Amino acid sequence: MPNIKSAKKRMRSNAKKADVNTLVSSSMKTAIKKFEKEVKAGNKEEAANSLNIAFQRIDKAMGSGLVHKNKAARLKSRLIKSKNSME
Question: Architecture of domain 5-86 in CATH?
């Protein structure tokens, strides 16, 4: 446990940031899994909606620095590829 006031504050702020980062990354992963589930089931309309949500979550994670821009581009490319193969 830190003794210095600024170190205590840093510890609190790091904990808050970790909670937010966990929320953003897990929601991104959940959105991707939901889209893949819709593609597997063959629901085109639901897959399109899930794709939009997944793109939003990936972009949010990329904007906050949780995911590198190249990884975000790769994920989005794979999702589009799987959607196009469905048609």
Answer: Up-down Bundle (1.20)
